[in-house]
Design a protein that fits this description.
Length: 233
Amino acid sequence: MRRKALRAALPLTIPVLMGYLFLGIAFGVLLSRIGYHVGWAFLMSVFIYAGAMQFVVIELLASPFGLFNALLLTLTVNARHLFYGFSLLEKFSISGKLKPYMIFSLTDETYSLLCVAESPQGVNRKWFRFFIAALNHLYWVLGSLLGNVAGTLLDFDYTGIEFAMTALFIVIFIEQWESTKKHLPALLGLGLSLLCLLLFGSENFVIFSMIAIFFSLAILYRRNSRVEREAEP
């Protein structure tokens, strides 16, 4: 059963593999540049596993530590995961003992796959979703280790390497846009994010935009549900 679920999940994670290898390599290289070597890369990628936040951690490690600033920055960068979790409560309800790991491993890319991927007929949904999350986690760890070793042993110009994260987000957005006929949620996300950016500035807009997107989608969902109920015979 688990092997069948693994075989079904693996092809769906290949795009994330390509992105996470490069992103992980970027993280590993940058971490090596401030003196933290392969053991730290492994531990951070296994236990923090926070994508963009791990890049932020590099800046925190390289500068004087301030507890309040670190907490506020972490909340700002990862606030979106609170809203991710709300939309997956029903799917995670069948995860059983795997539920804590499913919550922990919920990155942007894993969330995107879990939202759109359906387990093939005859494949256990719980294990199918678990392997999507676990494979993505493995890709990130491998990339981090490769990047850290390369950054330690090789001397090269890594200017702009951190843009890999932004590039992956753009690719995921385009894939989701093309995979659905309803673009209103995506347009709401873009519009409200831009509005909050203009109102609150680049340092504070993330939390406000997530709140605005959450409530706007909740209203849209209730409206659509009411329309569907009224259309029923």
